[in-house]
Amino acid sequence: MKLSRFGARITGQSGISDLMDDLGDALANKPEMIMMGGGNPGHIPEVSKCFQRLLQDLANDAELAHSTVGVYDQPAGDQSFRQKLAAYLSGQLDQEIDASQIVVTNGTQTSLFMLFNLFAGPGEDNVNRKILLPMLPEYIGYADTGIDPALFHSLAPKVEPTSAHRFRYRPDFEELSTLDDIGAVCVSRPGNPTGNIISTPDLEELDEFAKSWGVPLIIDGAYGLPFPNLIYRDSKVYFSDNTILTLSLSKLGLPAVRTGIVVAPKAIAKRLATMNAIMSLAPASLGQALMSPLLEGGKLDALCAQHVRPHYLAKRDALLEAADRHFQAHGVDYEIHEPDGAMFLWIHFPSLRISSQALYEMLREREVLVVSGHYFFFGTSEPGLHSDRCIRVTYSQNSDKVLAGIEIIAKTVAEFA
Amino acid sequence: MKLSRFGARITGQSGISDLMDDLGDALANKPEMIMMGGGNPGHIPEVSKCFQRLLQDLANDAELAHSTVGVYDQPAGDQSFRQKLAAYLSGQLDQEIDASQIVVTNGTQTSLFMLFNLFAGPGEDNVNRKILLPMLPEYIGYADTGIDPALFHSLAPKVEPTSAHRFRYRPDFEELSTLDDIGAVCVSRPGNPTGNIISTPDLEELDEFAKSWGVPLIIDGAYGLPFPNLIYRDSKVYFSDNTILTLSLSKLGLPAVRTGIVVAPKAIAKRLATMNAIMSLAPASLGQALMSPLLEGGKLDALCAQHVRPHYLAKRDALLEAADRHFQAHGVDYEIHEPDGAMFLWIHFPSLRISSQALYEMLREREVLVVSGHYFFFGTSEPGLHSDRCIRVTYSQNSDKVLAGIEIIAKTVAEFA
């Protein structure tokens, strides 16, 4: 097979394809596997019922059913959906958002593939710009998105202890001041894999750096603000005239509709809509049609506050309690990133004698699937001390199994530390 | 705004973005415009009812509703859908198709963006390969998909008169024998914009050329075989062990679900699934869920044969009759490509004294929207005589308006020829 350089690289062995192969293999051959690896949202009965009702309403309205499956949207998404969303966001972001600032895509993965390659890579002025990830670890899904093979410039974080067995990462602003040739800055907030929520002052400082370079600050809000609101620490949504906010319907409970949303300055939104046309023609309509009725009368916020957020918060608290108990019972040296948001615990084992990948393999043998932390450190040759001693565990799935899983993790780490 | 070279080019003024801007402007400011430009499928009441019923069935089944919106598919698409589709295609293609040969994408535009850039551009061996379009005119939507700015190598067609005021394009095989550095060969079949259906012997010859270069033959079957079957001339679906067949649910009546299907050799399908994961994470589920019940018991073929195909065939015949009548009444020098498939008439005006773009603008003034033929000639510096004297008119929309539109076209061309 004769492949382009880009094609060979993007389809070759990568973190994400390794993981998927492994996951597929585990699912096929080990039905008892405890799934604490992937990012599938939990099944929340009230939320499923809500979306089923919305789907029924849509299906029972001949005109709406036809427009949802039978008429192409504009490349930026349905105009009336974008207007409703703009009105909703204007309330949330405390500033006027116009429909022309909104582009609907086929999911956040597609949003970021487009944005990263719009801003980074060899430039019109022959400068080779990078996407700056100012605070590793960052989302594994970004790692292979570059048309240019070295798309990212990533910085190791500062580690700040917060209390017994707890810490937080923060951006290292001294490192930032030495950089140039940046095309855009990107952070996930809440962070995947850590659950970190970068503070507003830190975001403002990142935004100032971005402005000083004349580039945008991309905030990947897939887990967060203003929805699905998997936020467990007092935090506000951040938006400035230099911000690109990417949102998703996935963690609200709609991962299979593949709807991503980008809120950006108008000139960037216009570029992105053209890119959407060329790469996807138009976004899928279903997610927009299901969301539309929720954008009015506070329904979306109520769904998040009453069902989505409490579901994950309860699971987080249960896993956190069990983790502390089992790790301490087995004498494990551990620290957990403050789980301020999202659906993950990010656990650091300072005395681990094996690599996090070896730990992952050991755990897989014992039928617990986690993600080795090393995947989340890319775009740098100096990833820092945490890069080989952490794992990410997901608490979105069935609680009993997850609680059994954390005990197996505690026992296993105790053997190798 | 600092953009990558790729980003600046793909989001700059291009055929497709010009067209979209113009279309948006026309829709906003000229409500009486007769739309014979775009590719929206027609509204077929029986088909809309069928899909509404399928949507209701899905919405009323709590488990199915949840899996359709609430659970990520695998990157290649839902396994059970791919198995059903493989069984259906095995019957249609007269050979065993395995589910592992099928990848579901977010639409044909995305399928081809991935395939073109997988095979063409600078190669691992430093050879810069091209996508060969062996017979212009070709689909405008391909034109801007290249990560590499010069992705295509296109050949002008041979023109064969068939009867009074009719002709067909054929590939110029002598030209093909002089080529090298090809990464893949691609044809739309039925052709967009011409409605041409390349004959099986000609396809076999193209496939032989592709094999001699060690590259695949991509057949874009969005309008065709085996579904939605907008085929008006005895033709068979073509598939070999060197073929990549791309299919779409759009022209069946489901453009807004954004579901594309790629059938390929297993090794290529595996690469494409990885590319899908990195660019889109997973495909949207709705199109697969709606199609699944139709794949059994001959339902899909019956829907196409009883409703989809007859709808377009009747519209084609009506427009063709009106075109001959009005062109001849106004003494227009014209020839129409044999409308063997799809939903377009491709009309050549040999004596046109203005460019096809100028004709388009004139017609827009008179509230008839068509597409200027020059957009469909790209990837060559020698597009041939037809490249500036043709228009594409779509017959999928409201018939009375379309019939009024063709008379305005006849009068206008008569003034400028």
TrEMBL record, chains A, B:
Keywords: Aminotransferase, Pyridoxal phosphate, Pyruvate, Transferase. Its cofactor is pyridoxal 5'-phosphate. Residues 60-399 form the Aminotransferase class I/classII large domain. It holds the Pfam family Aminotran_1_2. The keyword Transferase applies. It comes from the Bacteria. One of its GO terms (cellular component) is cytosol. This is Valine-pyruvate aminotransferase. One of its GO terms (molecular function) is pyridoxal phosphate binding. GO terms for biological process: alpha-amino acid metabolic process.
